[in-house]
TrEMBL record:
Record-annotated membrane-spanning stretches: none
Source species: Aequorivita lipolytica
Signal peptide: 1-20
Superkingdom of source: Bacteria
Designated name of the protein: DUF2147 domain-containing protein
Domain DUF2147: 25-140
Alphabetic keyword roster: Signal
Length: 142
């Protein structure tokens, strides 16, 4: 009986840990320069890859902005609803080989994201090498 309870407990713990370690969901973006919350990005899976779109903007004066500096199909699209994270693939504990767009200037950077616990996400945008970039820490929206 003890073995059954122990086995069940280990299975339950494994399932809970796997669920908690998922990057999908809503994340509050934090400006790495000011420390202020800027928006909420919903991260989701599509065709086996990870994407993220802006679903909320906290500053009311910026809610109707469009990405005038973006290129391609994102040019002049509203920032609200804009898919800013595209095509990340799971690689061990991180997701990489995709891009992130900065809707403030339209620039597209290589990107990787990595969980730091269940409720903290490190998002790094970079050019060329991952050493040449910056990291933001996003908080899970509960």
């Amino acid at each position: 009986m003890k073995k059954i309870i122990l086995t069940f407990s280990l299975i339950a713990l494994t399932v809970l840990t796997a669920t908690a370690q998922d990057v999908t969901g809503k994340w509050k973006t934090i400006d790495d320069e000011t420390g202020e919350a800027k928006s909420v990005v919903e991260i989701y899976k599509q065709n086996g890859k990870i994407y993220g779109k802006v679903v909320e903007i906290f500053d009311a004066s910026k809610r109707d902005l469009t990405c005038t500096e973006c290129t391609g199909s994102d040019k002049n699209k509203p920032v609200m609803g804009l898919v800013i994270i595209k095509g990340l693939e799971k690689d061990g504990d991180e997701y990489n080989d995709g891009t992130i767009t900065d809707p403030n200037n339209g620039k597209v950077y290589k990107c990787y994201i990595e969980l730091d616990g269940a409720n903290t996400l490190n998002v790094r945008g970079y050019i060329g090498f991952s050493l040449l970039g910056r990291t933001q820490t996003w908080q899970r929206v509960k």
